[in-house]
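Milestone M4 deliverable, item 7.
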Amino acid sequence: MKIKTLWERCFSINSQFCDAVVSCGYLSFEQMVSAAIRYRLGATLQRGVIFWQIDHEERIHDGKVMYYSSDCHRMKDKLHSPTWVSFLLARRELRPKGSYTSSHCLFGLHLLRESDGNVALVESEKTAFVMSEIHPQDIWLASGGLSELQPYKFRPLRGRRVILFPDTDPDGTAYRRWNDISKEVMASSFWEGSPPIRVSPCLEQKASPDQKSHKIDILDFHF
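Output delivered:
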């Protein structure tokens, strides 16, 4: 009998996030289910969404637990702060404390096994999730945060055409940071022979000052 992996045991669309993606008009119910299966979403008993970080070799690195309100924006109060499955397991003593150290990878990395398409890399898991249905010709990955994009995480992407879609902000901090990282990666020996990494200037050029003050991303701009 096959033993189910951790994500298979936790797979669920019964999260506030999945409900909100549909009720806010980002995706139809059928599209949401399709994307949830693609990204192997999970859910907690409190209806938080679990964004599993599974790499290109099917190894689970960790799961990011997040809570969303009915407007599909992340809850930012202390009670609903993002956390990690590894932390919750250790706290419940389902893993001996000190025996497990999570190492993060890009969200959606397991999709590289299923397609040889181009990679579109964004910051937010939500954005990758929704954009994967809007532009299915690309493989949508997410760093999980501005500071979570690190050069070593590009190693599984070598040989691919990669375009980065950083969020925007009033002074262009995110764009410059991701542009600098792309240059560092392209100068690395492991990227030798791979296509140049592109950093989309779309938001920097087209977003209004008000949109930049709200730090929108490519999903916000699309809608």
